[in-house]
Amino acid sequence: MAKYKNHILVCGGTGCRASQGEEIVQNLGKVIEENSLENEVQVVRTGCFGFCEKGPVVKMVPDNTFYVQVTPEDATEIVSEHLVKGRKVERLLYTDPETQERVSESKDMGFYKKQIRIALRNCGFINPENIDEYIARDGYAALGKVLTELTPEEAIKVIIDSGLRGRGGGGFPTGLKWDITRKVEAEQKYVVCNADEGDPGAFMDRSILEGDPHAVLEAMAINGYCTGASKGLIYIRAEYPLAISRLKIAINQAREYGLLGEDIFGTGFSFDVELRYGAGAFVCGEETSLIHSMEGLRGEPTVKPPFPSESGYKGMPTNVNNVETYANIPVIILEGAEWFSSIGTEKSKGTKVFALAGKVNNVGLIEVPMGTSLREVIFDIGGGIKDGKKFKAVQTGGPSGGCLTEKHLDIPIDYDNLLACGSMMGSGGMIVMDEDDCMVSVAKFYLDFTVEESCGKCAPCRIGNKRLYEMLDKLTEGKGTEEDLTLLRNLSNVIKDTSLCGLGQTSPNPVLSTMENFADEYEAHVRHGKCPAGQCKSLMQYVIEAEKCIGCTLCSRVCPVDAITGDKKEPHLISQETCIKCGACYEKCKFGAISIQ
Amino acid sequence: MADIKLPAGKVEELKEVCKKLGNEGGELINALHAAQELFGYLPAEVQELVANEMNVSVAHVYGVVTFYSFFSMIPKGEHPISICMGTACYVRGAEKVLDEFKRHLDVKVGETTPDGKFSISCLRCVGACGLAPVVTVGDKVYGRVAAEDVKGILEEYK
């Protein structure tokens, strides 16, 4: 293998690729050749670095210089300055927003300081399309250890002792699940990886599959050995083409190396993995629905028990775990249960990956020890709220979770604490909202999602959520009554209590948690016909304050429906009949002359 | 529904795929993915064909097709526009962007313009939340889209 003096790591995650990441790789390659450096420098497409806000990210190895917001045109300067002359390209370095100083290494950035990367250990380090790089980072060593040194019972004991809990949201102890599957006698058992990441605004699993696909394959093989299964299936969303392509490459490479297939490591253990595609149904994240979908059926859930561990795919015992859960397994086997359980809180061990998004300065993928507070995540790692606005709420757990507020910011994040304050861990989506977000509208947004995604099998979820949505819609139109509020709460509780699967049992959470934490906002909509955040279109209007308007005509030019009239240097006027409340004028006015009433 | 004549070459190709999948009902979703890839959408004729090949009833195929949002029974436009309505995009103003597309093209979500050029659909999170709000036209991704950018994006394809 050629030895290179320098490596240039270019983020090849979906986000960075969408901002011309691929062109950066091409241009770097070209310039390196022009400078005859192709034998000294290698350009590597890696998985996600996590710092999506500042993407595309390019990292120089060995000196670890971390360039942000790189464009294809910057390739020339990176090569000529950094590689040839040994000078850093200052303008591409990250600027610390507080000190205004340039920071060159990621370990000194606020975004990375508090992170511990276990599940994401290889994302942004290795080329996910090259199995040798995974092996060089102890890849498949855990599988080797389990197959040659441990009995299935011993390996499962390590996982049980580590305290690892399901990262898909439920938080069921992983080792226990494995043990149940192991104990059921059957001719054929299955290992399933749930990669049907459906929470809007969550991209943890996608990043792991794109950045470190072998970790998941290795863990599935370990699970196969522990539970006595010879077949693995990955159920992945069809919407993730890049992850699918990298998984396919990884599976083929692992087969070539004899790490999947017959008689692995000459131990007589055989295991292989196949892909199954989802087709856009949120409910298929629920394990019984997922199994039905893999069988070619409508993805409708069934009552548990029987649990998939006893009777799953094709009626056989099936162990279903989520991507992030699997990604933790090889490290736990190698480093030991004691090491893993030393991280985290009493009942939630290890780390958790979160997709931090919304109105926060540093959008990205982060991994923090359990027990980190929301404040640390949002303000230290996330860099606070965008545009200096005020923090209002953070939504965790996706459509099944709830909205937490200021008063919850110092609670250590773990499964039980989040549940206790009316939200949940979920798979790890974390959406930050600011003062401009209307919480009634947010609840409506989630219900819109649930109504669309409800499979329709049971009445409480199919009909109940639709009624909840209609009531919330009424509130945002300013037509809600006090009775609606009572009804909203009662119906929410009924849906929770009587729905068949996890989708319906949690779908009212966004309503209940916003009603609990933002009661005043609901009241404002009902009693005063006002939307305090100024977001509900029916309850607001844009008005130009004559004394502040200098008649620059900018607003009338950006108005898409010509609702603004007025002569140059004269105060303008918005026609309320024509206005579609798009807010374009409000955002453009440089004099703060347009207000929301 | 008017009878659509399916191109013979593609029909053969689909039959071939179904054969590879063992003509077995358990592989129905994979077969439908292949069919949609080939024909662009899944009209009744294609569903009948798949049902025959996979040895399941047409009703079963229809049930599956209508259950999953990825499958479409309406042909998409030449330039399919997808607006991400994931939460991250939503709180960063995706709804306004969607409204603007609807207004400019005068079609609703899930519809195609009469000239067949554009279709609008919503999707739930492409996972590029750092670029929110995100719009995709065909394979091209537009990040940090504001309502006033919509006109410009559409002009690129006119």
UniProtKB/TrEMBL annotation, chain A:
Residues 540-569, 570-597 form the 4Fe-4S ferredoxin-type domain. It holds the Pfam family NADH_4Fe-4S. The keyword Iron applies. Keywords: 4Fe-4S, Iron, Iron-sulfur, Metal-binding. One of its GO terms (molecular function) is 4 iron, 4 sulfur cluster binding. It comes from the Bacteria. InterPro entries: 4Fe4S_Fe-S-bd (IPR017896), 4Fe4S_Fe_S_CS (IPR017900), NADH-UbQ_OxRdtase_51kDa_CS (IPR001949), Nuo51_FMN-bd (IPR011538), Nuo51_FMN-bd_sf (IPR037225), Nuop51_4Fe4S-bd (IPR019575), Nuop51_4Fe4S-bd_sf (IPR037207), Thioredoxin-like_sf (IPR036249). The keyword S-adenosyl-L-methionine does not apply. Gene3D superfamilies: 3.10.20.600, 3.30.70.20, 6.10.250.1450, Glutaredoxin (3.40.30.10), NADH-ubiquinone oxidoreductase 51kDa subunit (3.40.50.11540), NADH-ubiquinone oxidoreductase 51kDa subunit, iron-sulphur binding domain (1.20.1440.230). Belongs to the complex I 51 kDa subunit family. This is NADH-quinone oxidoreductase subunit NuoF. It comes from Carboxylicivirga sediminis.
TrEMBL record, chain B:
Belongs to the complex I 24 kDa subunit family. Binds 1 [2Fe-2S] cluster. This is NAD(P)H-dependent oxidoreductase subunit E. Its cofactor is [2Fe-2S] cluster. PANTHER family: NADH-QUINONE OXIDOREDUCTASE, E SUBUNIT, POTENTIAL NAD-REDUCING HYDROGENASE SUBUNIT. It comes from Carboxylicivirga sediminis. The keyword Transcription does not apply. The keyword Iron-sulfur applies.
